[in-house]
Each structure stands twice: as structure tokens, then as C-alpha cells.
Amino acid sequence: xxxxxxxxxxxxxxxxxxxxxxxxxxxxxxxxxxxxxxxxxxxxxxxxxxxxxxxxxxxxxxxxxxxxxxxxxxxxxxxxxxxxxxxxxxxxxxxxxxxxxxxxxxxxxxxxxxxxxxxxxxxxxxxxxxxxxxxxxxxxxxxxxxxxxxxxxxxxxxxxxxxxxxxxxxxxxxxxxxxxxxxxxxxxxxxxxxxxxxxxxxxxxxxxxxxxxxxxxxxxxxxxxxxxxxxxxxxxxxxxxxxxxxxxxxxxxxxxxxxxxxxxxxxxxxxxxxxxxxxxxxxxxxxxxxxxxxxxxxxxxxxxxxxxxxxxxxxxxxxxxxxxxxxxxxxxxxxxxxxxxxxxxxxxxxxxxxxxxxxxxxxxxxxxxxxxxxxxxxxxxxxxxxxxxxxxxxxxxxxxxxxxxxxxxxxxxxxxxxxxxxxxxxxxxxxxxxxxxxxxxxxxxxxxxxxxxxxxxxxxxxxxxxxxxxxxxxxxxxxxxxxxxxxxxxxxxxxxxxxxxxxxxxxxxxxxxxxxxxxxxxxxxxxxxxxxxxxxxxxxxxxxxxxxxxxxxxxxxxxxxxxxxxxxxxxxxxxxxxxxxxxxxxxxxxxxxxxxxxxxxxxxxxxxxxxxxxxxxxxxxxxxxxxxxxxxxxxxxxxxxxxxxxxxxxxxxxxxxxxxxxxxxxxxxxxxxxxxxxxxxxxxxxxxxxxxxxxxxxxxxxxxxxxxxxxxxxxxxxxxxxxxxxxxxxxxxxxxxxxxxxx
Length: 743
Description:
The protein is mainly β. It contains six helices and 41 strands.
């Protein structure tokens, strides 16, 4: 070969094939190496990743003219031609990655979780399958007693730690259901289908509820809208033609979610009972008869819309309509008289809330509500009450609440709450036609309330120690309308200013145990019936002062949850409590009419024991035991009742329910017990209600993942007297329930 031809051939071959072992370095604009950059030869099957110094190399021979590309997260990609040397360097410019908006949210602590009070919170999801009602639900809670007039849907009121129903505040989505007129709240008018959760505060009344009361709070939270499409339908049927059909559906559309619910229920309530013919001590003339004119019908609806997601401000609005038609059988001894008496009640409730974050404030919440209620009492035969009447009374109320909360320091939260409510009562009686008599008896009244509270919470050691104190001012103004010559004038004005306050503490030395203690002073302002009387049967007393309650309790809560263990959940709660009530309002007979006076005192001491457990092999149980000594210290009738038990308050009450599940079937047993108690303040042995046991059983099964069935047997012992001798209790009953849901 001619000299010079071989070197030229090598140069030509290198030009046709390319270079091997190309070294690559990738840096940023500051000259620093970019690790994990991806380098590839475009059009050739060769690639590498840079090391921690931003360097890599190609071991394969690359074709002449190919392009080398480099890319890395957070940098703009770059492409260079294959160099004539064995070295190539990329200098990449940064490229910020723009992410979609991401909202990080956390659930707010519920008010019940922040409170130092002893609170029982119950979810109602499972209870509808068991054909449970709101009065039955509350009666299972330790320290709570529900008094009913007998029968499905009958008038039922709640007592907490031997209180009267007037001393318990009842709320539905923050709307107070207690009327200024008085009389307690009918729990049977609230359908369980629209309730998602129930919270019962025993002894302590948090500032968020304000108002007038001394014993505690029952707070109903209606169903909330969800993000996804969900629905549920429930129905049950049972003894005495008792039936209920309900359903709800919820869905989200964009940033707004909504829920709609409807409930229709009814019962003939024509159970049999023993009629003593008005001679309690003589049993020879007793007969078994059927309850008449005791029917019930209820229709209820709920509509709610709310914001979802990270929208600011957060908001919600709801509307609820509660309608009941209760036929009134009257005294059990008058069953043979013609009777068409009934009470129709309809209540519209609307509520709105806006929650706004502001500088220096962790939360600003504004709430407003409106309520309109109409009660029509038809007693054309005059067999109920004191005579023939057809009344059509109306109550209208509205209110607003402003809450400001701020974390002064990371461990201290200060809240300011301001609340204003106004309520008017407008009576009417169609049987009274004389203008002069109507002007004298049918007088409207009005009540305005204003509350202001300051609350301070200090949480230390990751909320293992929580101190909570609050102080408030509660002012109430009452006015009675007198109509003169066609014009209205406000007269008989009364006003009260009280300063409720409370202090509480939680100490949790370990995650599974906490010790709680609370001391508080509260008041119950006289209602309009006590201040101004009614249409002739009772005389009002405008000189009444508010009832005062001093409550204190201390106890501990132990709980454990172990997933996968034989004992999955166990909890126990033991509470010692004392309540002292002064200036209790009692009615005294004055010239054949009833007039209220501040003559009462009472002291209630007791112990509450609650426990629950759930095991891996399907057994679960709940137990509530209450012992209390409701001592009457009233000076009424020169101390005639002093030292006696308060009437209708048993000393012992036990409620329990146990379930055992296997192969998709659940068997249940429930027990309710109270010892004997007195029906009158004088504690006459002849007016003693005997001890009683109520036994319930049930079976549930799930033939399909969306379908539940249950059969419930209640009061298997056929007990006929439980709360009162004069109001018979329905006997043994059986109910069949079905639930179909979207999931």
C-alpha cells in the first residue's frame, strides 16, 4: 500500500462511523453538576444518567452527525450536535415546575371534642336499621331519662341528672327548640332519619349554646352533604299499624354539595291497657280496654346546601320542616267518652352559616336562623283539659350569633361570642268570639335575649392538659301586649341579667386515660307562661327570679383501640356529680287557681358509669348505670316536702345493649331498668311507681351489600307502667325494618 493511503483510510473510516467513549457533563448556569440528568443520543440506542457530579459517558460508537440531548427535572432540556472531540458539556437553565393548586386541610375539632364536659356523641347511621326513635336513642345515654306519654310519636321530654325538661337546652343545627312560652321540647317530633349525630352535654353548658338552662344540652346535627353521590331509603312496619318511610340523597355539583331528606311516619297506637276507673287502690273494678284517639302522623323534610373543598369563605344553609298530628286520648279512665281532641304542630326552621378567616383571627363564624311555629289545638268535645277550645297559636323567632376565635399564642385560644334572639308568641282561640274577652285573655308576648361570652382555652403538652374557662352576660327582656282601642301597647315588662360562668380541666397522663373536672353556675329564666299565665287556669307572676344551678363533676375516661387484637375496643367512664338548684319555680294553689313562686330548692348527687367493648369475634356491648339521690329541699307548704325524693326521678337506672355477629347475622339484646320512684312530691306510698324491667331483642342480616333487614321485639315482658301510672305504656311489640343504600 502506498505510504499515506492507510492514514487517510483511517480518517475516512472515523468520519463514517463516529467516535467511541464520549464523555458528557451536565451543569447548571452556576457551573454546578446536575445529578440524575438523562442524556441520550437521538437516533441511536444509547443513553446514560449523570452521577452526583453531573457526569456520564457513552461506551458505544455513535454515528457521525447524531444529536445529543440532555434533560433534568426543573431544567429546560438542551440538544447539541456530536462534537469532533471526546468531550461534550451541557449548561441547563432552570425551569420551575408549576403544580396544580393543592389545598391541605384538616378537620376542625368539634365543639364536643374541645369541651371539658362529659359528652356523649352518638352516630345514628346504624340506628335506623333497628327501628329506633329519638326518644329511645336518648334514653340509652347514661345520666339521661326520657319521659313519654305513651305510644309511638307521643309527647316526650328529656331530663339530665334529675332535671326538669325546662332546664335542658335542645338545639337542631344550632337553632334553639326551647320556646319562650315554656313546656319543654317534644323529642318525638324530631325524626331520626334527618339526624346524623346527637351530642349530649351533661352538667356543663358550653358558651356556644348560650341561652337559659341549668342541666345540660342536647344538640342534634342533621345530615351533611358529601362529595360523592349517595342515597339511602329506610322503612319499617310493626305493631299497632306503626309505619315509617324515609330517604335521603346527597350529591356534589362543582363547589357546592346538597342533600335532601324526607320522612313520613304514623301509628294508630291502639294498644290495650288496664283501666282502673279512677280508683287506684281498688283493683276489683279494673278492666282491660283499647286506647282510643291516640293516632300519630308526622311529616318532615330537610334541605341543605354547603360549600365544599378549599373555598373561602366556607358556608352552609339549611331548611327543615317538622309537622306532627297527635290525637290526644286524655285521661286513661275516660276512654268511653267521645273524643276527637288533637294537636297539630308545624315548624319551619331555616339556618345559615358563614366561616371566614381574617388577619389575627383563626376563625370568624357568623350564624343566623329563623323559626316559625304554629300549634293548633282542637278540643271541640271538651274531654281534654278544662273545656271546649280550638286554639291556633303562633310563635315566631329569629336570632344571630357571631363567634371570633384567635390563637394568642400556639397553646392559647380565646373566643368571643355574641348572640341575639327575639321571639314572639301570638295566641288565638276560635271559640272565644267576644272582643272584650279576647282582649283580656288573648294577649301576645315578646322576649328578647342577648348573650356575650368570653372563653379562654389553654392546651399544653399536645393537649394532654387542657384548661377551659368562660364567663358570660345573659340579658332577657319580656313584654306583654295589651290591645286598647285597636292599638297595641307593650306593658308588664320584666327583665333579667345573669352572669353564667364555668371552669373545666382535662388531664391526660397517657393516651388511653383522661381525668376531667368541671364547676359551673347557670340560670334558667322564667318562661312566659310562668311570668304571665295562660287563659284563666293559671296566674302569672312577674316577680319571679331565675332558677339558679351550681353544677360540679369529676371523673375519668379510659379507652383503648387495638386493630387486629382480640379486644378491638374498650372504654369506661366513671363520673361523680352534684347539682344544687335554688329559687326553683313551683306552682301553688291560690284561690282555686295556680300561681308560680320561687320556693324550691333541690340537691342532686349521683354517680354515672358507662362502658363499651367490641371484640374480634363479633361481640360488642354498651352499658350505662346511673345512681342519683334527687333530694327535695323545697320550703313549699312550710317544708312539707323537705328531704323527700323529687317526683318521677328513680334513684337507679340501667340501660344496656349487647350484640353478637356471625356469618352476616347480628343478634341483639337490650335491657332497661329503673327502681321504684314516687309520683308525687309528698312521697306517698300509694303513688309509688314500682321497679320495672324492659327487655328488647333483635336480629339483623344483610342479604346484599346494599340491603339490610332487621326484626326488633320490644318490651317482651309486656310492662304497662314505666314512667307514670296515669299514662299507660304500650305493651309487647314487633317491628320489621329494611334499609337500602348506595353503598
